[in-house]
């Protein structure tokens, strides 16, 4: 069912999950101080080589766009191909947008921010999702979605401000699906830095709430 990018369950299509397949969950909530929208894909068993490579390439695209430094006033459509490049390298692609604006206690899909041709240029302070994916009809679907804040980048040049993204979704990716041999040293460094932030921000809160099982899972899932 996850091969449908925006699947909704029904009595005719719902079925029991098993540990022998991928599971995609697109989650979120609306709170007084913001709206969340985050997607993770997991496999509790033994993924096929194609599933593992496709997932890793989706993750590479997510990382490459998230760590990109670009000139201010750049349109999202100008940079969205960074999220697709690792997939394009092996002839894969996805058929939906790479990201959309996030409303503050408003719509989950909040225009005019995003990466499509009719979105406004990116500016510091905007929130957008970054969500590359890959879908194989009748078999499986992969999407990795984070919310990112557009922030000013620290560069050596002082001529004009450049921008980058600060990912604010703090949830580990599925280690079972990552083929480390495909990742560049820069991508691995980014991943380790991201996991350090997750531990620093989420770990103490889980401890405060005495959620020891969740804390143990978090520590295991964010090993370097």
UniProtKB/TrEMBL annotation:
Residue intervals of the Peptidase M24 domain: 1-151
Domain Peptidase M24 C-terminal positions: 161-224
Keywords: Aminopeptidase, Hydrolase, Protease
Annotated TM spans: none
InterPro entries: Creatinase/aminopeptidase-like, Pept_M24, Peptidase_M24_C, X-Pro_aminopeptidase_P
GO molecular function: aminopeptidase activity
Cytoplasm in keyword set: no
ATP-binding in keyword set: no
PANTHER family per record: XAA-PRO AMINOPEPTIDASE 1 (PTHR43763), XAA-PRO AMINOPEPTIDASE 2 (PTHR43763:SF4)
Similarity annotation: Belongs to the peptidase M24B family.
Protein name: XPP2 aminopeptidase
Organism: Sylvia borin (Garden warbler)
Gene symbol of the encoding locus: Xpnpep2_1
